[in-house]
Structures are given as C-alpha cells and as structure tokens.
Amino acid sequence: MSSSSSSAERLSQIAGHLNFPQGLLAGQVAIITGSGQGIGAEVARLFANEGAKVVVSDIDAKKAEDVAQSIKSNGGSAVAVSGDMLDSKYIDELVKKAAEFGEGKINIIVNNAGFTWDGVIHKTTDKQWDTIIALHNTAPFKLIRAAAPYFRVKDGAPRSIINISSTSGLHGNAGQANYALAKAGVTGLTKTIAKEWGPQFGVRANTIAFGHILTRLTAAKEDGAFVTTPDGQKVALGIPKAQGDTKAKAGFEDIPLRRPGSATEAARAILAVASPLFSYVSGQTISVTGGRNI
C-alpha cells in the first residue's frame, strides 16, 4: 500500500469518527445570553442548525422573539426568554424555563451578554464601573451558580460553559479600565469552573477572547447605537469615527489577516469550542483575533 493511499485511509477513518448526521450539538440544550442580535444571534442560529435546542436570552424581548422565530421557521428548536441579566430573579427564571424547555437538562451556557461603557480612569464614574463589573462578572457567575444542578450531574452527557472575553481583558485598553478588568476576570472564573466541575462531572469550561469583530460595539459611535441601563440612562456604543477611520486607513495593519472579523466568524469559533471536536479542551482562553497580538 502506498503512503498516499494509507494517508487517505486514515483520513477516512477520522472522518467516520467525526460523522454527526444529526448535528454537532444534537439534543443538547443551550442558553445563549445576549442572543437577540450580533454575535449572540449568530451563535443561536448556528447552534440550532447543529441540532441544539436554543434558549434565546436577551434584554430586548422583541429581538429575542425574532431570533427564536427565525430558528423555528428554519426547522430548528428555540424559545425566547427575555430579561435583564442584572436582575437575579430573571436569572433564576431563565434557568427554570431553560430546564423546562430541555425536559430537565441544560448542556451549554454561553455567557455572551454585555456592552462597553468607556471612560478614561480619572473620569470613570462609580456607576460605569459597577455596571460593567456586574454585567460581565457577577451576572455570568450567578447564571452558572443557578444552573449548577444541571451541570453537576454524572450521566456522561456533554456539558460546556463558554465565557466571552476580549483582547481588552488580555492586554488592557485605554479608556476601558472597567471593561478590561471585567474581561480579565472572566478568565479566572472559567479556569475555576474547569477545576471544580471537570474532575467529577466532566464539565468543560473555556474562554473566547475576541479581537476586532464587526458589531455595534465596534461600529462608528456616530451611528447612534446605544443601550439603556435599568434606570433609563442611555449609554452610547461604538468607536469615535476619527479613531475608527484611522484603523481603516491603516488597513488594520496590526491584524495579520488585515481585516476585522464578522459576527458569523466569531459565532463559528464559539460553536467549535462547544462542539465534540473540542472535547479534550478545557480551562483555556482562545483568542479569535485574526492574528492580532501574536
């Protein structure tokens, strides 16, 4: 047998092991926070396409319902459970409804919900600081804690927690002391979950740190995107146009691929980490940056 035919045979055997006719996530129940738009919505659709039963969680009820309906109209399984991740009662309700939807099980949590509220250190208010830490650290912790009875289970079923971070958390970023600290904290939370719930229950936990992904957080600030805090304050999102234009004119020279990533590309990375293709990967921080910061 030639070496080329031997290699082809090995590849065929590998392909056979990686054959998932019903989808990479068939039968798994996934909570995806912040999935009414952007990366989260793309994750919801990709997960559904791979056989998952998707719980669309978002503060915007209409957007959450629209995503769930689009999934169902394409033959997938989804339910919208809208609410504010800063509300502990909502987190409990989210877990309860997800478990009901999943007929007593939850397999995947993607902690994706969040936004930026930038300010240089000496001008950052307590409210800016507290809100970002609560949303990116405390809320994911509370969701994971509330879902513990569905993850600390010895039944051999796959279970995975994916916490979304940012290169701001890995390297810091001027004007984002609150966001950088919160996203750095995500890494510690992830590693702790992996060490606590991996040995007995086989739960995998990983962090994905995104670089420049095309979302409302990286669009021109002048486009007018904003979020509203629970007390009604509007927080402008995006990058000031002059700053964004400078990066565009430079051709994103600090990114080896010379372009930002799309929301779909970001979502594919999350799907990969949640899938059985990453079954022996846990406790890691995976940078999805187009090569930036290497």
Automatic annotation (TrEMBL):
Family annotation (InterPro entries): KR_dom, NAD(P)-bd_dom_sf, SDR, SDR_fam
Gene3D superfamilies in the cross-refs: NAD(P)-binding Rossmann-like Domain
Residues of the Ketoreductase domain: 28-200
EC number: 1.1.1.100
Catalysed reaction, written as an equation: a (3R)-hydroxyacyl-[ACP] + NADP(+) = a 3-oxoacyl-[ACP] + NADPH + H(+)
Record family assignment: Belongs to the short-chain dehydrogenases/reductases (SDR) family.
Name listed for the protein in its UniProt record: 3-oxoacyl-[acyl-carrier-protein] reductase
Biological source species: Phyllosticta capitalensis
